[in-house]
């Protein structure tokens, strides 16, 4: 009885396996695409991916990096806001640099004041004191000379009236008074001549160095306030109050990398498309004056004709991948830039991926 049950279960299993193989072998109806793929408008068209960016006469979008490091205390603009050249964008904490500027400013002012003091010499009061010392020394010398003359005449008439010791003291006193007059006279002449030219020159150089240090510090202080370099539109802000930034930019939480804290584009209605031509398709490109291309916005049937602007004559490794499994990672491409005017009612934004076909040879 048990063998019959086992045999029956085996037969049922085999039949079930055959039925499953049949069911899964029947091809299913494919799902329709989410949107129709971009058709090739040219018989010999070259397909490429394109990235929309703001139109520039050269370069790409305007990536703004801070030249100093610090914490952001205020963001003045919002994404999508049009700004004019010089509009404040981001303020970085500048308290330490501001104190340094004030210190260097005081040092520069002190150095300049000392230079003016040296140039203003001799001071009137000092000159009058020095002149008075000369007059006093002259009077003292006259008094000592008179005393010597009296002692000398008395000694000449009656040698016993004046001792030799008294006469020698009078002679020495007259010599001391004469030497003192010579010293104060030279001090008066030195005071009258003013500051030494080398002292003035040295102080002038120190004052200039202090002024340059202050100017450099003030210029560095100005870099803590980031301003718009041109008239344009704020495309992206990767900074918030309290976040730390450096010359590498700001830290992006999602990509876990560093990037510009502000990305700007031109305020013109014209946009650009940067296309990357595969290196094996480069020989099929027509001459630059005969380049013709059309752009297709993904998810729509909208096609926009493109105007050739320029190409970068340097084949470089491709950074952006097309998300296709057969795409080579080590792929080199030639960047070609076109421009276009967005049609009315069609929204196109910088950074958007588009499909582009270029008429080939």
Task: Show the helix and strand layout.
Elements: H1 2-25, E1 45-54, E2 62-64, E3 70-75, E4 82-83, E5 88-92, H2 95-119, H3 124-157, H4 164-193, H5 197-222, E6 225-227, E7 232-237, E8 244-246, E9 249-252, E10 257-259, E11 262-266, E12 271-278, E13 293-296, E14 303-311, E15 316-317, E16 332-340, E17 353-359
Antiparallel strand pairs: 1-12, 1-17, 2-11, 3-5, 3-8, 4-7, 5-6, 7-11, 8-9, 9-10, 12-16, 13-14, 13-17, 14-16, 15-16
Helix pairs in contact: 2-5, 3-4
- Between the first and last Cα atoms, what is the distance in angstroms? 80 Å
Low-confidence stretches: none
Report the β-strand fraction as a percent range: 15-25%
Structural class: alpha+beta
Helix count equals: 5
CATH superfamily of the domain at 62-93 and 224-266: RNA polymerase II/Efflux pump adaptor protein, barrel-sandwich hybrid domain
Give a verbal description of the structure.
Among the domains are: 75 residues, Beta Barrel (OB fold (Dihydrolipoamide Acetyltransferase, E2P)); 73 residues, Helix Hairpins (Orthogonal Bundle). It is 39% helix and 25% strand. The longest helix has 34 residues. It has 361 residues and is an alpha+beta fold. It has five helices and 17 strands.
